[in-house]
Design brief:
27% strand; alpha+beta; five-stranded antiparallel β-sheet; three-stranded antiparallel β-sheet
């Protein structure tokens, strides 16, 4: 090794037999250049991995948001149907209509039921059909001569967001006066 103007100079014999000299400053400059290149590759690969991860998380978040909305909708429809059925349960069965009569109960009117009119239907409307069909099976629950039983069909309607409506929940029940049986 020799002492030079730029510090220590290292000498070694290369493969072709010639003497080569390298200064420490030159080695530092070269190593910094290569480390910058590696650093750039690392940043690009880390950014790519982050992008893939964020994309996966955002898709999961969207999926869970949709599931949450469906669960919320399901809960509100069942709650609306339960509210209407509880109110009907408190009324006198003999005063309930028969023969396919329909009533509509809207959440905006606190589920107060009125005669059915399709123009009154709104999101969350509950439509009650008394004695929905006169088949042999339902006739025993809807016989006009026996006012102590009524077969009820309850449907909850929602908007599809495109101007149409669809049934989101349906249930059927039979109300009967146990004192009369």
């Amino acid at each position: 090794m020799q002492e030079g103007g730029a510090g220590l100079v290292r000498e070694h014999i290369g493969m072709n037999g010639m003497k080569r000299s390298h200064s420490p400053q030159l080695q530092r400059d070269c190593s910094q250049h290569f480390s910058r290149g590696q650093s750039l590759l690392e940043v690009i690969s880390a950014t790519l991995i982050l992008f893939v991860g964020v994309t996966g998380v955002s898709q999961g978040f969207l999926g869970f948001t949709l599931l949450n909305r469906k669960a919320e909708l399901s809960t509100s429809t069942v709650s609306g149907a339960r509210t209407v059925l509880d109110r009907l349960r408190l009324s006198d069965i003999s005063t309930m209509p028969s023969g396919g009569t329909q009533e509509i109960c809207n959440p905006s009117s606190n589920y107060a039921c009125v005669a059915f009119d399709a123009s009154l239907r709104e999101a969350g409307s509950v439509v009650v059909t008394y004695c929905p069909d006169f088949t042999d099976n339902s006739l025993e629950y809807c016989d006009p001569t026996v006012p102590s039983r009524r077969h009820l069909l309850v449907e909850v309607w929602e908007n599809d967001g495109q101007g149409g409506e669809f049934v989101t929940f349906t249930t059927e029940t039979v109300f009967s006066d146990l004192n009369e049986l």
